[in-house]
Design a protein that fits this description.
Nitroreductase/BluB; alpha+beta; 4 strands; 11% strand; four-stranded antiparallel sheet; 9 helices; globular; NADH Oxidase; Nitroreductase
């Protein structure tokens, strides 16, 4: 049975965020969704508003592909099949492999806490592999989002797309929606391009699962910890 330890922060993610501050403090990655579809009108509003995200010289280097219904189901099937054939990702951009020691500590700690909330033992590789495959079924979310670009991939394009992605996630909270940003959805870009009939010039940068969170899910209540402000932020006068 999954559970949260006394050392793990838990938060209720049901309801709608009524302010920017509320959205910031209640947003976290959701990995367990209701099957309830997100209304077309909500999706239209959400992505229309998200286009106000900042970008270098208003370049707006993103393209957005919102996949729901039968198309979403087929995409999940294809991505899972591809992941089972080979666990080695072939993304359009290089994923980072080296991290400072403090980042490694946070990443390891996060993984252990997520597995704990999911009821998965650390040594149970089969269960961990199955959980990883859930990335490719969008953790049950009824809507999958793929963000692509035809720009040359570099640090500043990544900054712009990061701003855009965060804008989507915070706005989603104002509709009572949950999200989880996923590098995993860029692992096999050839599948995405073929299924969505995209040009080879469109590079798949990342993905996002979107939907209504299961309110009774222990996994959804897990709130990722952050460092103390005194350890990260320095003030100068």
């Amino acid at each position: 049975m999954s559970s949260l330890s006394s050392e793990t922060e838990s938060i209720d993610i049901s309801g709608i965020a009524s302010s920017v501050e509320d959205a910031i403090f209640t947003r976290h990655s959701i990995r367990d969704y209701l099957s309830k579809p997100v209304e077309d009108s909500v999706l239209q509003e959400l992505f229309s508003k998200s286009l106000r995200a900042p970008s270098w010289k208003n370049s707006q280097p993103w393209k957005v592909h919102v996949v729901s219904g039968p198309k979403r189901d087929r995409m999940a099937e294809l991505l899972q099949e591809r992941a089972k054939q080979s666990e080695t990702p072939v993304p359009d951009t290089i994923w980072p492999t080296g991290f400072p020691a403090d980042a490694k500590r946070r990443m390891f700690d996060l993984g252990m806490k997520i597995y704990g909330a999911a009821g998965i033992e650390r040594k149970d590789k089969e269960a961990r592999d199955k959980f990883m495959l859930r990335n490719f079924e969008f953790f049950g979310a009824p809507t999958a989002v793929f963000i692509t670009t035809e720009f040359e991939l570099n640090f500043y394009i990544a900054l712009d797309i990061g701003c855009f992605l965060n804008t989507i996630m915070l706005l989603a909270r104002s509709y009572g929606l949950g999200t989880v940003p996923q590098a995993a959805l860029s692992a096999f870009p050839e599948v995405v391009r073929k299924e969505l009939s995209l040009a080879e010039s469109e590079k798949v940068v990342c993905g996002l699962s979107l939907g209504y969170p299961k309110p009774d899910s222990v996994l959804n209540k897990f709130h990722t910890p952050r460092e103390e402000v005194s350890d990260i932020v320095k003030f100068y006068k």
